[in-house]
Write a structure and sequence with these properties.
Blueprint (H helix, E strand, L loop, with lengths): L1 H4 L20 H14 L12 H8 L3 H13 L3 E4 L2 E4 L18 H4 L32 H15 L13 H14 L9 E4 L1 H13 L5 E6 L3 H9 L3 E8 L2 E2 L5 H4 L4 E4 L13 H14 L2 E5 L24 E6 L11 E4 L2 H14 L5 H12 L2 H25 L7 E2 L6 E5 L6 H10 L5 E2 L13 E5 L5 H19 L10
The site of pyridoxal-5'-phosphate has 14 residues, from helix 8.
InterPro entries: Aminotransferase_I/II_large, HTH_trans_reg/aminotransferase, PyrdxlP-dep_Trfase, PyrdxlP-dep_Trfase_major, Tscrpt_reg_HTH_GntR, WH-like_DNA-bd_sf, WH_DNA-bd_sf
Family: In the C-terminal section; belongs to the class-I pyridoxal-phosphate-dependent aminotransferase family.
Protein name: DNA-binding protein
């Protein structure tokens, strides 16, 4: 037997590290060795184990140690005791039955077909690096006020808030969000229509689950937000790319007949990533047509709060009464991404109709954070923070624009008066993903515009450049490095040039 399971290590021998790697007690070692031998087929089903007396003598342990080990193995079904002694049970794994080992199943067979639909174009670089799009100014977050809100939630909410919450979210937060959206974004809603989710991503997944069946058609902006495409893939939808121009999503009129949609993803206030604002004419057209074909419009208002100057662009949801709009929001930009709190505002009638399904699908966690956020909004801290960030991002965008203007033609720069990123179109001679790889090696993390495209083409060769988390004074030096890399790729001299 010792040839099959090997000699046991003496647990009384301490190692050089002072016993940190001390062997397990003999009984535990014996149980593990025998289990392994049975699972791998070295002790095949049906084979008779030596008597406890014999094995104890062979292994140099007490008989009691072997008896207890055999009893343990019998209790969990590895062995059975019969008239002849202790025998290995017939287990279902082929190796335990002594059959030859087979290769693990090929990946195609092991995974759902949709797994292959996720294109690996995103770099999972550190999202706090300069020029990363989508990361807000983390070092400007009012940590002290947030800590106070969390402490207050603990004072008032414990111990109840440690239990499961209402699946649709804390009523206090739903009410606070509704009040804020009515005032700041012109959304027509009350708290009963708000469902709290784990960020906008879960809100998108929820929209897919509630409003589509596998095979339904979904339209997405192209280039557009990858999270929307991921949600549609998860729902086994047929995703149709829709072009984007300076007025936002531009639907070819015949698409309503040839590929009638069930869901339409839009980012009207600030198209992601081109920065276009969806014109009122197109908003009204989308609402009217969606109504006619029975489709739902997802309005992703991910950074609509950050209009730098002038009046904010009001939501599409609030444009007309009972618009077929699912308004999705997130605190990833307005607070911080790791908070993982987002929401969807459902039309009033739909909210009542889907309440039971929502209750079954969600669990209602992060209660203390939700209560703290409700207080943070209600006390005015949130509004003050937004005001400060709006001014900060305005200054940072201006610095980025000036830096880009020094090296690139203004016509290449896309993006409006909003948000935390600008988009730079590149000539075909500079492949955007090559440029981002080189930039990353220098510690900068702009994203390749082509990575946002379902159908990459000349207009989707470029960079999405974030300024949210990059101080204004670091933008010009960073863009100088980018321009230098772009120049090298084009084979042009480093200075005194404008790419494109
Ligand atoms: C267009 C868009 N929508 C939504 C989000 C926020 O997603 P989440 O709330 O899941 O972090 C982002 C974040 O990058 C985004 O770019």
């Amino acid at each position: 037997m010792i040839e099959i399971i090997g000699p046991l290590d003496n647990p009384l021998t301490a190692t050089a590290q002072g016993g940190a790697d001390k062997p397990a007690p003999l009984q535990k070692q014996l149980i593990e060795r025998l289990q392994q031998a049975i699972l791998t087929g070295r002790l095949p089903a049906g084979s008779l184990l030596p008597s406890s007396r014999l094995l104890a003598a062979e292994m140099g342990v007490s008989r009691n140690t072997v008896v207890i080990a055999y009893e343990h193995l019998a209790a969990v079904g590895y062995v059975v005791a019969d008239k002849q002694g202790t025998r290995v049970s017939p287990l279902s794994s082929p190796s335990a039955r002594g059959e030859p080992r087979v290769q693990p199943a090929a990946p195609q067979a092991a995974y759902a077909a949709r797994v292959g639909q996720f294109a690996a174009t995103r770099t999972h670089a550190d999202n706090t690096l300069p020029l990363t799009p989508g990361t807000p100014a983390l070092d400007r977050f009012p940590v002290t006020a947030w800590r106070r809100a969390l402490e207050r939630a603990m004072e008032h909410g414990l111990p109840e808030a440690l239990g499961y919450g209402t699946p649709a979210g804390e009523p206090a937060l739903r009410d606070a969000i509704a009040a804020h959206l009515r005032m700041a974004r012109g959304v027509r809603c009350d708290g009963s229509q708000v469902v709290i989710t784990e960020g906008a991503q879960e809100a998108l997944n929820l929209c897919v689950r509630l409003f589509t069946n596998p095979g339904d058609v979904a339209w997405v902006e192209d280039p557009g937000y990858r999270g929307a495409k991921a949600a549609f893939n998860l729902g086994d939808l047929t995703t149709l790319p829709m072009p984007v121009d300076p007025e936002g999503m531009a639907v070819p009129p015949d698409a309503w007949h040839t590929h009638p949609p069930k869901l339409i993803y839009t980012s009207p206030a600030h198209q992601y990533p081109t920065g276009a604002v969806l014109s009122v004419a197109r908003r009204l057209e989308l609402i009217a047509r969606a109504r006619r074909v029975g489709a739902w419009l997802i309005e992703d208002d991910y950074d609509g709060e950050f209009r730098h100057t002038g009046e904010p662009i009001a939501s599409m949801q609030g444009l007309v009464e009972d618009a077929p709009v699912l308004y999705v929001g997130s605190f990833s930009k307005t607070m911080f991404p790791a908070l993982r709190i987002g929401f969807v505002v459902l039309p009033r009638a739909i909210a009542a109709h889907t309440a039971v399904a929502v209750q079954e699908m969600l669990r209602g966690g992060h209660r203390l954070e939700q209560l703290a956020l409700a207080h943070f909004i209600g006390s005015g801290e949130f509004g003050r923070h937004l005001g400060r960030m709006r001014r900060l991002y305005r200054d940072r965008q201006q610095a980025l624009r000036e830096a880009l203007n020094a090296h690139f033609a203004p016509s290449q720069i896309l993006g409006g008066n909003c948000g935390m990123h600008l988009t730079l179109r590149l000539p075909a001679s500079i492949v955007d993903s090559n440029l981002t790889a080189r930039a990353l090696a220098q510690g900068f993390n702009p994203r390749a515009l082509s990575g946002f495209a379902l159908q990459p083409r000349a207009e989707t060769n470029g960079l999405v450049i974030g300024y949210g988390n990059t101080p204004a004074e670091r933008l010009a030096p960073a863009i100088r490095v980018l321009a230098g890399l772009a120049g090298e790729m084009e084979g042009k001299p480093k200075r005194g040039r404008k790419a494109g």
